Amino acid sequence: MQWTEVSVTTTNEAVEAVSNILMDAGASGTKIDDAADFAALQPEFPGELLDKRDLPHLTHGAVVTAYYPETIELSTIIPVIKQRINELDDFGLDAGPATVLQKPVAEADWANVWKKYYHPVRVTRYLTVVPSWEHYQPVDENEKTLTLDPGMAFGTGTHPTTALMLQALELTIRGGETVLDVGTGSGVLSIAAKQLGAGEVFAYDVDQIAVDSAKSNLDLNPVAKDVHVSANDLLKGITQTADIIVANILADIIVPLIPQTWPLLPKGGLFLTSGIIADKYPLVVGKLREAGYQIVETLRRGDWYGIIAKKPEVDD
User: Fold this and answer.
1) Which intervals of the chain form a coiled coil (predicted)?
2) What are the respective helix, strand and coil percentages of the chain, to the nearest 5?
3) What distance, in Å, lies between the first and last C-alpha atoms of the chain?
4) pLDDT tens for residues 163-216?
5) For the chain, which domains are there?
6) Annotated binding residues for S-adenosyl-L-methionine, as ranges?
7) Residues making up the binding site
8) pLDDT of 39-57, one tens digit each?
9) Rounded distance, CA 144 to CA 104, Å?
């Protein structure tokens, strides 16, 4: 089968949004070349020497590449992709150059093209993201691995927004908690929650492609085999209560989610959010406080914010 490679030159902050746009347009897989990921690249094994100068890489920004089969009519799809990327500015995301290019590619090439760029990355103190084809030995007994296949990439764990939520889960999970993962994407946060000791985990995403991607990644991690994952529009209609709700999505989507979380959390329950660009942070904090939440901690990486909010243990 003939495939077409569509690449979008963008910014670090917009890679996950652009990837979602490309997948929504019918891509069979994406890869992300991000200067920030390269900067975080570490040797695979203790004592191994890694000369980054020998590896091809971006010096700034990012390129998101998607692959479309010949059955998809790209002449009608490309204008829609360009329009949706240009609209990211309305959500407070700078998509950068947003240059969209396309070229034909052989199936054998796209199936393995990202493997030379994607390596194990220690994202937090205890959590390391490992691609499914790599053999990786944890360097200490406290390290937990999250195995992912980026073939259907909705967040590989290394983007600042995802890393912030991994850090927040690491700070808050004590063991046995029920967790709701809203906008699960790759399933990385659900896997992390289970690795950190959570009890039941329920994962939701509005996109069936993301649900299927999450299921595939959950299957790669035995600890997460009992995660419940299904398609749903945020938390509409959900009655399952939880000790922790986590959402790594855009600020403009977090705002309508806030009132949906309140009745599902007990007093003392936690709502962890990320995907909040700097100029949207005051909006989200204001809406959280308006709903009754206390801001326990704010996390930051570059221009991105994560928030740990708490439902008060006593009524005001």
Assistant:
1) none
2) 35, 25, 40
3) 63
4) 899 999 999 999 999 999 999 988 999 999 999 999 999 999 987 877 888 898
5) 2-116 (3.30.70), 121-310 (3.40.50.150)
6) 162, 183, 205, 248
7) 162, 183, 205, 248
8) 444 444 344 433 444 444 4
9) 39
